[in-house]
Automatic annotation (TrEMBL):
Organism: Dietzia aurantiaca
Main subcellular location: cytoplasm
Family, per entry: Belongs to the TRAFAC class translation factor GTPase superfamily. Classic translation factor GTPase family. IF-2 subfamily.
Alphabetic keyword roster: Cytoplasm, GTP-binding, Initiation factor, Nucleotide-binding, Protein biosynthesis
Lineage: Bacteria, Bacillati, Actinomycetota, Actinomycetes, Mycobacteriales
Gene Ontology MF: a single term: translation initiation factor activity
Annotated protein name in UniProt: Translation initiation factor IF-2
Superkingdom, taxonomy of origin: Bacteria
Keyword Membrane: no
Annotated Tr-type G domain residues: 14-186
Compartment(s): Cytoplasm
Job description of the protein: One of the essential components for the initiation of protein synthesis. Protects formylmethionyl-tRNA from spontaneous hydrolysis and promotes its binding to the 30S ribosomal subunits. Also involved in the hydrolysis of GTP during the formation of the 70S ribosomal complex.
Protein residues bound to GTP: 23-30, 73-77, 127-130
Length: 518
């Protein structure tokens, strides 16, 4: 399905797997990434210096064939989480590092949850086996409890014992990654199209301005391309690879530092090539406005059943995280929820559960996997609520099981209701204002594009920001007559269901049309 809008089978070429290293703090993620980098990027041949650009590629021989792998070089899963939260799938394979002298720890479990929620295959690196206290078999046993059964025990997860410190078995680990990728994924992309990618990291560099490390996902990015990434835009002025060398183009799975954006984009933002600078700027401005408006709206809104619906519309799978005051109720609730009879099209998945308050860790996972959190007789602790508001995560509180069941069931059924999407009608600029005692403010407008339509839904844009949503055009006149529609290039007089309108404001109209189900 990934290949659909990339042309036909013949247009697709094999691309390297993109790998993220995750695991508990101090288990050796940084050391492992360094070790792979220095062993494989070849510091000597590149003149002794490798750049830290947030990702790198290495080549390793597997079954007599040179295979390339891309590593995201930001240890931990913050970047991964940020990207998942924005819906960008940036990783093909997760390497979960577990220290053999320590064992499975909370962040190990979190990493497993993240990877499993994203349906990313896992390779387990059992690290620090140089230590006397290392117990690699114990780690295998522990991981089995999380559904990661080692191949040698008849499962399908590859475990490799390594020492990141001594550079031991790094080649075997790379081989395991390649074999896992080959076994479970069809990694291909069309290099002959406008590039699309994801920003792994971005910052403001004193000399070079905004710099973003971008992982190309499809197409080829070239110097000179007009680009938009989140609400930042610009033109690719320079691209630099992990050796510090300038490159003129970057193909799928290639990480490059991109210089030329006019502002700093966010980690996880999608980068896209567009036809011209002007378009890039317009898209970026629009996103900027939407973002500010969405944030404002989010902090206002009460979470409703409709919000639950929207989770379903996008995924047809409702991910849940259940937190409760004791393990008995959590279990009961999960069982009851799993017992809801639902249509084949819809899936309910409990991706995590636990006893105690809703924590930031829960919210983090929910954001990453578009999950809804259920708090049963518990509340959110400290910053978790704030974070949930910021990330747009729904936390729903219950103290009666059947209420929880009823609501979730209603939401799942609601899934089959029609889906509406917005269709733009047009934009008009307010050029004059008249007061009328009968109808309030009348706006004298010029229709800039599309049409204005009586009774249409509208929003008000001021200085590029949406200042009011869900207005209606309550009356519309062309010269002295009532009109149902007024077209682009004509003046009109209109009233809207909102009183604070000003000269220079833009009225954008739209309608909701039913989206066909596929
Ligand atoms: P991170 O927090 O997961 O990135 O962990 P680090 O890579 O910073 O490693 C934490 C500590 O463990 C450091 O002191 C490393 O030197 C040490 N360490 C990492 N890998 C190994 C290993 O294979 N063997 C031993 N003995 N120590 C290691």
């Amino acid at each position: 399905s990934f290949g659909e809008d990339e042309g036909g089978e013949d247009d697709l070429e094999r691309r390297p797997p993109v790998v993220t290293v995750m695991g508990h703090v101090d288990h050796g993620k940084t050391r492992l990434l360094d070790s792979i980098r220095s062993a494989k990027v070849g510091e000597a041949e590149a003149g002794g210096i490798t750049q830290h650009i947030g990702a790198y590629q290495v080549t390793s021989e597997v079954d007599g064939v040179d295979r390339t792998l891309t590593f995201i070089d930001t240890p931990g899963h913050e970047a991964f989480t940020a990207m998942r939260a924005r819906g960008a799938k940036s990783t093909d394979i997760a390497v979960i590092v577990v220290a053999a002298d320590d064992g499975v720890m909370p962040q190990t479990v979190e990493a497993i949850n993240h990877a499993q929620a994203a349906e990313v295959p896992i390779v387990v690196a059992v690290n620090k086996i140089d230590k006397e206290s290392a117990q690699p078999d114990k780690i295998r046993g522990q991981m089995t409890e999380y559904g990661l059964v080692p191949e040698e025990y008849g499962g399908d997860t590859m475990f490799v014992d390594i020492s990141a410190k001594q550079g031991l078995n790094i080649d075997s680990l790379l081989e395991a990654i390649v074999l896992t990728a080959d076994a479970s994924l069809d990694l291909r992309a069309n290099p002959d199209m406008d590039a699309q990618g994801v920003a792994i990291e971005a910052h403001l560099d004193r000399g070079r301005g905004p710099v973003a490390t971008v992982l190309i996902q499809r197409g080829t990015l070239r110097v000179g391309d007009s680009i938009v990434a989140g609400d930042a835009y610009g033109r690719v002025r320079r691209m630099v690879d992990e050796h510090g060398d300038d490159v003129t183009e970057a193909s799928p799975s290639r990480p490059v530092q991109v210089i030329g954006l006019t502002s700093v984009c966010g980690a996880g933002d999608t980068l896209m090539v567009v036809e011209e600078d002007r378009t890039a700027r317009q898209i970026a401005d629009r996103r900027n406005a939407r973002k500010r408006n969405a944030l404002a709206a989010r902090s206002r809104r009460r979470i409703s059943l409709e919000d639950l619906d929207s989770h379903l519309k996008e995924t047809s799978q409702l991910n849940l995280i259940i937190k409760g005051d004791n393990s008995g109720t959590v279990e009961a609730l999960e069982e009851a929820l799993m017992g809801i009879e639902i249509d084949d099209e819809v899936q309910l998945r409990v991706i995590d559960r636990g006893v105690g308050a809703v924590t930031e860790t829960n919210v983090n996972l929910a954001a990453a996997s578009d999950a809804v959190i259920i708090g049963f007789n518990v509340r959110a602790e400290g910053k978790a609520t704030e974070m949930a508001n910021r990330e747009g995560v729904d936390i729903r509180y219950y103290s009666i099981i059947y209420q929880a069941i009823d609501e979730i069931e209603a939401a799942l059924k609601g899934m089959l209701k029609p889906i509406y999407e917005e269709k733009q009608l047009g934009q008009a600029e307010i050029r004059q204002l008249f007061r009328s005692s009968k109808v309030g403010n009348i706006a004298g407008c010029m229709v800039l594009d599309g049409i204005m339509r009586r009774n249409a839904k509208a929003r008000l844009i001021r200085d590029g920001n949406v200042v009011q949503e869900e207005m209606t055009i309550t009356s519309l006149r062309r010269e002295k007559d009532d009109a149902t529609e007024v077209r682009e290039g004509f003046e009109c007089g209109l009233t809207v269901s909102y009183s604070d309108i000003r000269i220079g404001d833009i009225i954008e109209t739209y309608e909701l049309v039913e989206k066909p189900r596929d």
